[in-house]
């Protein structure tokens, strides 16, 4: 799993930034091999695990070595222009691999496939397949077509596809934490955002299948699940058999009840939808983590209106108060956009001051990047000069640096229950894990017989901006 806490920096590409290539999952079991790289948000990483499962059934096993792959896939992101540029560069590198191995097929999946559709085949000659996020079930057929020399495209969006029955193949897993996709698409139409166009209408996955997946993960030794969606708080499922309706709060409770040893997290919450009901369920169950990602985007009401976020500065502040009231030790993080269309210096100052007010533990910070077809691109001028955008972003980043450091300093001397995720990257004699608030904690193994997936109480002794350093509580 990506290290979210040390990721507290400018994200010019995507939330999770780096691409990854999966483990070979017993490759000899399969006749052919695929290689997949994922970009963008957690949803995309989770989708790649669904794709892996579909490909396994079609006789393709995963490999980490692109050179030996028969099929090379890029699961792409369109959120900002820079993300698309990174992917184009990567495709150029694939061209060389394809020259060495002419039979190799190249497929583009995900949001960029959806946005550019068949145009991608024109623009990127080496691409054989373009497959949108709701069309992964058709991959085996599309591969056969492409093997026959016919370029193939399926970018149909669906109103009901949730891949509920597909058991994801956990690709780059630490064996402790896993993502579970609970809904797809987004109906929110924030004016800057391309996601509603690339992922289609919002739909919620069958609650039973989500709980069953979480139970299966727990039985296999996993100890933490993150319920994923672009807007998890609007999860809503009606069970046709029992006529029962399931809200996000109900769903979270059901997952939490699997075992007190299974931690439950979720991402992302739109501030407008996070209800008291959700906050009370979080407070009630110790294993539902006290951490909320609550993207503010801007601290100014006029800009928020232009962004179509549907809340004001004051409303957001009250939401933060409410969270702290119901869950006093709740960690809060944010997404922030600098230099949105027509943003003034005073309005930018409002963003800096709402950061102070909310005391974010960390933030993902971006400068505005106009995306074709979005409401903002059609209606507003992208008129804040690039150097001004970058300067404002730097001020936001600097502010967050101090907020993160302060937040970590306040934790020194406190004791936290940590779920061990693995060895520290820097020190084989230390464990790395997270507390409920999603902060990374590193501590010496000492003489104790601990392993990945164990819980242990530690006391924080020191910190950096991104990490808490601790000792095992005696
Ligand atoms: N569904 C999630 C966000 C997904 S996109 C949510 O609503 O919280 C992740 C973040 O990328 C957004 O929160 C926003 O801060 C940023 N982002 C989206 N479109 C952008 C754009 N056009 N320019 C810059 N940042 C953008
Ligand atoms: Fe984009 Fe807004 Fe939907 Fe998030 S809630 S995915 S920012 S439209
Ligand atoms: Fe990117 Fe698509 Fe996610 S645009 S952020 S991969 S939903």
UniProtKB/TrEMBL annotation:
One example GO MF annotation: 4 iron, 4 sulfur cluster binding
Protein localization: Cytoplasm
SUPFAM superfamilies, alphabetized: Radical SAM enzymes
Protein's UniProt keywords contain Lyase: no
GO terms for cellular component: cytosol
Residues annotated to bind [4Fe-4S] cluster 1: 41, 77, 111
All residue ranges annotated as the TRAM domain in the record: 409-474
PANTHER family according to UniProt: CDK5 REGULATORY SUBUNIT-ASSOCIATED PROTEIN 1, MITOCHONDRIAL TRNA METHYLTHIOTRANSFERASE CDK5RAP1
Protein family (similarity comment): Belongs to the methylthiotransferase family. MiaB subfamily.
UniProt-recorded name of the protein: tRNA-2-methylthio-N(6)-dimethylallyladenosine synthase
């Amino acid at each position: 799993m990506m290290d979210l806490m040390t990721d507290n920096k400018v994200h010019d590409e995507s939330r999770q930034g780096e691409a990854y290539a999966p483990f070979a999952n017993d490759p000899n079991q399969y006749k052919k091999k695929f290689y997949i790289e994922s970009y963008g948000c957690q949803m995309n990483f989770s989708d790649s695990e669904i794709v892996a499962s579909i490909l396994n059934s079609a006789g393709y096993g995963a490999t980490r070595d692109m050179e030996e792959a028969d099929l090379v896939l890029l699961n792409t992101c369109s959120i900002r222009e820079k993300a698309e540029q990174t992917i184009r560069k990567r495709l150029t590198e694939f061209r060389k691999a394809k020259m060495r191995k002419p039979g190799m097929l190249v497929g583009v999946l995900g949001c960029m496939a959806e946005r550019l559709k068949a145009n991608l085949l024109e623009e990127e000659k080496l691409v054989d397949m373009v497959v949108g996020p709701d069309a992964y079930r058709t991959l085996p057929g599309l591969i056969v077509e492409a093997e026959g020399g016919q370029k193939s495209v399926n970018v149909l969006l669906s109103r009901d596809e949730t891949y509920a029955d597909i058991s994801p193949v956990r690709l780059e897993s630490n064996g402790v934490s896993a993502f579970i996709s609970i809904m797809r698409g987004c109906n929110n139409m924030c004016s800057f955002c391309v996601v509603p166009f690339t992922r289609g209408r919002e739909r919620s996955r069958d609650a039973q299948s989500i709980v069953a997946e979480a139970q299966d993960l727990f039985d296999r030794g996993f100890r933490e699940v993150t319920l994923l969606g672009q807007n998890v708080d609007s999860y809503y499922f009606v069970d046709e058999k029992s006529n029962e309706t399931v809200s996000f709060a109900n769903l979270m409770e059901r997952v939490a009840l699997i075992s007190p040893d299974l931690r439950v997290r979720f991402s992302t919450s739109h501030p407008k939808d996070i209800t008291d009901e959700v906050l009370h369920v979080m407070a009630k169950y110790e294993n539902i983590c006290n951490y909320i990602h609550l993207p503010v985007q801007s601290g100014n009401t006029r800009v928020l209106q232009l962004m179509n976020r549907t809340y004001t500065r004051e409303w957001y502040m009250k939401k933060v108060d409410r969270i702290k009231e119901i869950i006093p030790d709740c960690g809060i993080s944010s997404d922030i956009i600098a230099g949105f269309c027509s943003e003034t210096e005073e309005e930018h100052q409002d963003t800096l001051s709402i950061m102070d007010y909310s005391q974010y533990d960390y933030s993902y910070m971006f400068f505005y990047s106009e995306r074709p077809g979005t409401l903002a691109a059609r209606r507003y001028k992208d008129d804040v000069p690039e150097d001004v955008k970058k300067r404002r972003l730097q001020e936001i980043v600097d502010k967050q640096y101090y907020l993160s450091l302060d937040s970590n300093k306040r934790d020194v001397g406190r004791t936290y229950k940590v779920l061990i995720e693995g060895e520290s990257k820097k020190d084989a004699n230390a464990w790395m894990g997270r507390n409920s608030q999603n902060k990374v904690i590193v501590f010496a193994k000492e003489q104790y017989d601990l392993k990945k997936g164990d819980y242990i109480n530690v006391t924080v002794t020191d910190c950096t901006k991104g990490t808490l350093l601790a000792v095992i509580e005696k």
